Amino acid sequence: MVMVEADGNYIQPVAVDDLDIYSGESYSVLIHTDQDPSKNYWISVSQIFLQQNPGPHGLPKPPTTYNRRIILLNTQNTINGFTKWAINNISLTLPPTPYLGAIKHRLSNAFDQKSPPENFPNDYDVMKPPTNTNSTYGNGVYMLELRTTVDVILQNANALATGVSEIHPWHLHGHDFWVLGYGEGKFRKKDLLGLWRIILGFGHFTATLSLICIWEWEWSLLKVFIWSKMYQTMLLLVA
């Protein structure tokens, strides 16, 4: 098969016999049905579990400070009568041009250049349905500076129905990141005390650990170091 696209961008075609796909990634391949037409064409898929080797000095320790902190509130809302999921009250609409291609070619009109909100109101009660269910569409991204440390707090909340909260998986494309802690209810600054014990260390290309789940009415704190221009953009992708 010939691989022709990766994460929404055309690539130089390359012939491969097999393909490893990690969490959240997408690829397009071409196959030629030029063999015996009386036989079926089979696609075989298997799951690979990798165990990270921490090396002789253990896992790398996270920075003790941060340059930027982004708190993402995950809620269920309504837009024009339809139920939508939103982050900080914005629900994603994908732009016609893939993000990575638009950023690489500096297409300033391909998506909203205004950064989405980096926090939510302090008086928001994550244990109850939203008092205002209305949300808006958007497709902006968070632009992160090279060689900076970013704290990302993922906050789960009550859905539209009383007493209902759902589990949500999250992933970051290709980033090294640490999970410093998690807890129940609403994240508070005092929750940071005592969190400088690494609960999990996540490594680049660690397929089985590149995905985390935020449980009902819970939060998790991630720390990300932006070490490469390839990963200088953090996309907000929530439908």
Describe it for me?
With 239 residues, the chain is mainly beta. Strand 6, helix 1 and strand 7 form a beta-alpha-beta unit. The longest helix has 6 residues.
> Which term fits the overall shape?
globular
- Please give the number of β-strands: 15
Strand content: 25-35%
SSE string: EEEEEEHEEEEEEEEE
Helix content: under 10%
Number of helix segments?
1
Task: Label this structure with key terms.
three-stranded antiparallel beta sheet
Describe the SSE topology.
Blueprint: E1 2-6, E2 9-15, E3 27-30, E4 68-79, E5 82-87, E6 90-92, H1 99-104, E7 136-138, E8 142-143, E9 149-156, E10 168-171, E11 177-184, E12 200-202, E13 211-214, E14 218-225, E15 233-234
Parallel strand pairs: 4-9, 6-7
Antiparallel strand pairs: 1-2, 1-3, 4-5, 8-15, 9-14, 10-13, 11-12, 11-14
Can you summarize this structure?
The chain is mostly beta strands.
